[in-house]
Sequence to fold (375 residues):
Amino acid sequence: MRVTSLDLANFRNYAALHFEPPGGVCVLLGANAQGKSNLLEALSLLATGKSFRAAREADLVAEGTPLARIAARVHRAGGDVTAGCFITRVGEGARKRFVRNGRTVAYAHFLGTLAAVTFLPSDLHVVGGPPALRRRFLNAALAQCDRTYYRHHAAYTKVILQKNALLKSAAPDEKLLATYNAQLADSGSQIIGARAAYVRKLAAAAREVHARWVGPQPELGVRYLPNPTLPDGDESPGTVFAQLEKALAASASAEMLRRSALVGPHRDDMALELGGVALERYGSQGQQRTALLALKAAEYQLLAQAAGEPPLLLLDDVLSELDAQRRHAFMLSIEDCEQVFVTATDAPETLPRTATTVYEIRAGTVRRAPAAAAS
Ligand SMILES: Nc1ncnc2c1ncn2[C@@H]1O[C@H](COP(=O)(O)OP(=O)(O)O)[C@@H](O)[C@H]1O
Ligand SMILES: [Mg+2]
Fold:
């Protein structure tokens, strides 16, 4: 798929942008703080419904204005679609409204209109950072592949908040707690089942990509670490549900004592290993980067399968952080991309010569670069 037009109004530092990007590789060049990341953020927001920066959503709306708009026309194998998002300031926060083919739709129905894999410098923390970052990686990847995943995850998250609030109250109502646990077993087992299936496919694809780049040894291992642990890795829905139900019951008194929900997929993790040892402890920085690139390439493959066509690829400032060999390997592995957006402060020298268009971004404007800058 590819975006054939993008319109921004009062989105971050873009007062008004109309941009008709071509297919292939679009290189977005510009000095710092000109709007390169903001442009990728707008595209990514249409794919995931969320900003890839953790900041307040009100910050998406240009300062001094009440409403931001992102709108894109997307060329897909099955025909063109339009995707839009309106972000309105509401007090300190913001409200989002999603539009698909001109009609306002719920977030769950909006997901899947545009598919994109995003790669940011901060993604490197998926390897060495806390488990929450690996769960976030899985959630973002899965929500785009599987609409029901998002619903189960939203339901689960809501009940976890309620349960934690109840556990912190003076005398938690045990009946209500049991109701919450039953709901958590339902949605939680769906999440675990989906993550288990996804990570199995992700692991196979990442292992293969990694072996192609660095040879078969040391092998890249990606393993899902569900909470609770499943007996012999049995991931059938019945087993997952029964295990989670059992674990919730078994930890009831500990949860009362600690006043916090202790079991369930909100405590999941994913192990990343090289030759059987933990990557974050034993891998060099170069090895960690290569592993992460392989993981991203695998995410791309799986999303392409789920969407039925290649998603967009959004690379923000990451190519400059890789050495020439890794950059080259990565670009080769995504050769079949229909559309890639790459931001950089200087033109990367290893970009493919064909189907590459260079733009200059300056203070919220996008202009085709003169031929000299493009070569
Ligand atoms: N809500 C906003 N209103 C106006 N300008 C904003 C807003 N949010 C961010 N900006 C501006 O956007 C610029 C940063 O854009 P960004 O895309 O991150 O830069 P870069 O080109 O380095 O990737 C900064 O100048 C910042 O002040
Ligand atoms: Mg940037």
Summary: The chain is about 45% helix and 25% strand. The mean pLDDT is 92. Residues 3 and 251 are 49 Å apart (CA to CA).
